Amino acid sequence: MTDTPAVEASGATVEAAVAAACAEGGWDPARVQVEVLSPGLVAVPGEHLAARAARVRVRPLPEAAPRALDFLRGLLDRMGIEADVSASLVAPAPARPGGPDGEPAPLLLEVEGADLGVLIGWRGESLRALQTVVNLALGPGGTGGPRVIVDVARYRRRREEQVEAMALRWAARVRRTGEPMTLDPMPPYERRAVHLALADAPGVRTESAGADPERRVTILPAGGGEAWS
Amino acid sequence: MPDYAELVAYMVRALVTAPDQVEVRADGGDRRVRVEVRVAPDDVGLVIGRQGRHIEAIRMVVRSAALRQHQQVQVEVAE
Predict the structure, then answer these.
(1) A140 interaction partners in chain B (CB closer than 8 Å)
(2) Which end of chain B has fewer CB atoms surrounding its CB within 10 Å, N or C?
(3) How far is CA A100 from the centre of its chain?
C-alpha cells in the first residue's frame, strides 16, 4: 500500500499552518502538496471575524517534482502552447491483490488552459506521448511504472469516470447473461479504472490479456465463467 | 510558428547520455518541415527506443505543436 507521510498542522492562517507542517516534516514549502482542512480566519464584510485556526494536511512531493514541472513548462513553451501546469500526488490506489506494494505515488502534472485539444489528440494519444516524453526526460525511476502522470484539461479524470460508469453497466450484463465480456483495447490507466471499479462488484471478476496497445480487459462471471458447464 | 528544431532538440537533449553531441536541423517551407536529428552513435538506440516508442512519442509531440499551425513536420534520426 502506498504510504506517503503526511503531517497535519494548525496556524492562524493557511500559510502559517503550512509553514508549521513543513517545519515538522523537514520539507521545503515549495515542494509540498497542501490540502486545506479548514481555511481558518475568513473575513466576512460587516460581521465579526471568527477566530478559527487554519488546519492543513501537507505531503511532500517527489524529489523529481521541480525538474518535472520545469521540463513540461519548457516543453509547452517550445510547442507554442500557453497553459498552466501544477503538480500534485496521484491519489493512492486502494490496495488490490497482485498490485505493486510500497510503490511511491506517482507525481501528477495537470495542464490547464484554453483550447488544449491538440495536447490530448485522438483518444488521448498526444497526451500519452507527452507523458512518455516527460518520463524519458526524468530518466528511469526505482520502479517500472511511470514516475509522472500527465493530464490535460482533466481528460484522464473524465475518461476514468466514463470508464467506471461503463464498467458497472458491463458487469450487470455479465451477471445477467453469465457470459464473459471482452472489452475494446484500453490504455493502462483506463484498464486500471475498470479493475478498481469492479474490485468489489458482486458476481464478477476481471482479467487483462494481450500486450499494449492491444491489451484488453475481460469481465467474467465470478467462479470462472463456469455457468454453462 | 514554433521553432521545431529547438523543440526536438529540447526533448532529445533531455533523453540522451551526450546532450552536447545533439545536432538538429530543420529545412522546408510553410507547409512541410523536415527535422533531422544527429546524436552520438551510442545514443541512437535511446532516441529511437524499443519498437520506436521514444521517437514516436517525440514525433507525436511535434505533430501536436504543428497541428495548430496547419503544418506537417517530419522528424528523422540520422543513423
Answers:
(1) none
(2) C
(3) 16
